[in-house]
Amino acid sequence: MKFREVHITRYITPLREGGSLPAIVEADDEFLYVLKFRGAGQGTKALIADTVGGEIARKLGLKVPEMVLAELDDSFGRTEPDEEIQDLLKFSTGTNLGVHYLSGAITFDPVLHPISEEMASLIVWLDAFLMNVDRTAKNTNMLMWHKELWLIDHGASLYFHHNWETWEKQALSPFKAIKDHVLKGKASKVQEMDTFAKSILNRAFFEKVVNALPVSWLVEEGDRQVYIDFLSKRLENSQVFVDEALV
Fold this sequence. Notes:
Layout: E1 5-14, E2 23-27, E3 32-36, H1 44-59, E4 67-72, H2 83-91, E5 94-100, E6 106-107, H3 117-130, E7 142-145, E8 148-151, H4 167-171, H5 190-198, H6 203-211, H7 223-236, H8 239-245
Parallel strand pairs: 1-4
Antiparallel strand pairs: 1-2, 2-3, 3-5, 4-5, 6-7, 7-8
Helix pairs in contact: 3-5, 6-7
């Protein structure tokens, strides 16, 4: 697996969501991207979670915008009048995460946009597996684009990496926060989706995704192995979080 690389050529507008301040930018391939900055919020750990989570979702057949490695030159943004944005650009020199911008997409609303029990259950399974706390009624992180459901922003996933020492314990977590998932009420087939997901995901795939991450996003090269081990162990013990999702 290898992610495409682009260079950011134009800063268009900030997306003032939460404290991370992503932005819509244009790259040298003339496409627009939502740029997730390495200098924002949780730094490169959020970029890792977003990338790994997104690629796992894609492997399961869910729709996720293309993710690219977006290079930001150190001279970029010097004329930016907003000091907060200028600082963010300065601290984000190097490799950032670009997510293809879905122009005209609207926020998913479970009342207005009904989906099947199978899809709801698969998304709940995914977020329980990833320990994603950020797919709630308040913030669904799902979009409707061309009448199809797209998943975005997995940056709050894999939060074990904020406390490396407990990764083995956290890999076995039932993930009680799944009770707040926006689709939980419709997710009646999580057990069936567990069987489906385990027929597709495996350690070899996790290795491909994690090994494609930029070196500059990792604190230590050995961190790759911990991500791979965590995902593999969590998949092997998936019944722990499946049972919680069915409560």
